[in-house]
Amino acid sequence: MTLDQLRYFQTVCKYNSVSRASEYLNISQPSVSNAINKLEAEFGTMLFTRQNKRLILTKEGMLLLELANDLLLKADYTLQAMKELSDNKTLNLGVPPMLSSFILPILYGDFFKNYPDFKINILEDDRTGLIRMLEDHRINMAFLPHDGPMDARLKSQPLIEFDNVCCVSKYHRLSQKETLTIEDIKDEHLVLFKNSFFQTERILERFKQSGYNPNILLNTAQVTTMQNMAASGLAVGFIFKFLLESTSGLVGIPLNPPMRTQISLVWKQGEHLSSNMNHLIQFVKKYSRSNARELN
User: Fold this and answer.
1) Rounded distance, CA 43 to CA 282, Å?
2) Domains of the chain in sequence order
3) CA distance 156 to 172
4) Which tens digits make up the pLDDT trace of 186-234?
5) For the stretch 188-202, what's the b/e string if a residue is b when 16 or more beta carbons lie within 10 angstroms of its beta carbon?
6) What is the pTM for the complete model shown?
7) Phi then psi for 275, rounded to 5 degrees?
């Protein structure tokens, strides 16, 4: 039995599929199947049964999964603790692209001046990608948007809450409205962030709940693209309210009902917290207390 075999087994349990597990792990299906076969041979018992093309854990498989989860958590903790000994001043931090212009000036302007020897490696990705990086230990912490309780596998420290607004050209027919509903914009061309972005998921869900199909002109990963297309009158977009300041000719109109997003610093449940991670947690906690209201 090896840690890799247990990790492959754990991932198959998560997806109930060898093919999906191999895709997530980025290894071949035979490698995953071989790991399961070796575990079954070593323990002399079947770990899965197959029902309607789905893998179902046996009673023995359930026990192994419980033990494997505990063992792998301890192994990950050990790995993180030992890595800190060799590089205890570098923190790998994930940030969504749309939040970089807000978060990075705070870190470089307020946080690092108190910790001049603090080293940080910033990685940008959408919410889904950052969560995967946390799971794979490619990053230690991340700033993530959410509008409800965090996944039980993650711990968090709130930073700030933002309004999401609909942005249109100041010459747009809707620019004088105080609030906008999905009904108001159902026929408008839309410029949205990529579908994997948290904000876009929420916008699309609102359209679905209202019974309309969004008229999407463009999906982008660039804040400036959305701002410029909306300012030029080509499409209607959705951004955080604080981003309005960087583009002239753009009007932000609150949605009805309001759409607010919490931004929190997150890390894996059970993760070994280095001194650098604790410093950042305490900074975020202090910042949140001193900036209790949303930026306007």
Assistant:
1) 46
2) 3-85 (1.10.10.10), 86-160+262-290 (3.40.190.10), 161-260 (3.40.190.290)
3) 40
4) 999 999 998 888 889 999 999 999 999 999 999 998 888 999 999 999 9
5) bbbbbbeeebbbbeb
6) 0.66
7) -60, -35
